[in-house]
Write a structure and sequence with these properties.
Strand content: 25-35%
Structural class: alpha+beta
Helix content: 10-25%
CATH architecture of one domain: 3-Layer(aba) Sandwich
Radius of gyration: 16 Å
CATH class of one domain: Alpha Beta
Number of helices: 4
CATH topology of one domain: Aminopeptidase
Mean pLDDT: 90
Low-confidence stretches: 166-180
CATH superfamily of one domain: Gcn5-related N-acetyltransferase (GNAT)
Distance between the termini: 47 Å
Length: 180
């Protein structure tokens, strides 16, 4: 029987584990679509102190199995922006990313967000497409003045069955990212 997956809100004590998971995930899972230089630059910019605590309205959820952090996701509820979703290399294909994404979507829909947007790394684009996200356009994530990561801007609209009949709520508008 597979170990039970649990989701919870991240705490300040998760900071180092989040950083380790994030750097391992990028180093392992992005090597097939980005150059060594791009991956090393990306990982080199990550710092443990940057992970928590998030400023409201950001929410960070973590996924655990056997008391080990196996994934995390970060959502900005005002902008409807999925800012991060990473899974440990050992947990790929085990439903961790799907569970985190579903939980973050539920939070967004409950907060009356009309659509969730994200910049998908090239290796993650099929994952999001399989979960109902539409590709909007090619984009790039600026790491340094000389290193840009190609990515895909994607969006998923709130299911119509979950839309309120009237009224406006927080996070209903999307703030487009400036083009690099």
């Amino acid at each position: 029987m597979a170990p039970r997956l649990s989701l919870r809100t991240a705490s300040a004590g998760d900071r180092l584990a989040l950083w380790r998971l994030h750097t391992r995930s990028i180093s392992s899972l992005c090597r097939d679509v980005y150059s060594d230089h791009e991956v090393k630059t990306w990982v080199g910019l990550l710092r443990p102190e940057a992970y928590l605590p998030p400023d409201p309205p950001r929410t960070v959820l973590v996924a655990e199995q056997d008391d080990q952090l196996v994934g995390f996701g970060q959502l900005d509820l005002v902008r409807g922006e999925l800012e991060a979703l990473y899974v440990s290399p050992e947990a790929v294909g085990l439903g961790v990313g799907s569970a985190l994404l579903s939980a973050l979507e539920a939070l967004a829909w409950h907060a009356n967000v009309r659509a969730m947007s994200l910049d998908a790394s090239l290796n993650a684009e099929p994952f999001y497409r399989a979960r109902g996200y539409m590709s909007l356009h090619a984009a790039r994530r600026i790491l340094t003045s000389e290193v840009y990561l190609p990515c895909t801007r994607m969006q998923k609209r709130r299911p119509s069955a979950l839309r309120p009949a009237t009224g406006d709520g927080p996070g209903q508008g999307l703030t487009p990212l400036p083009e690099p």
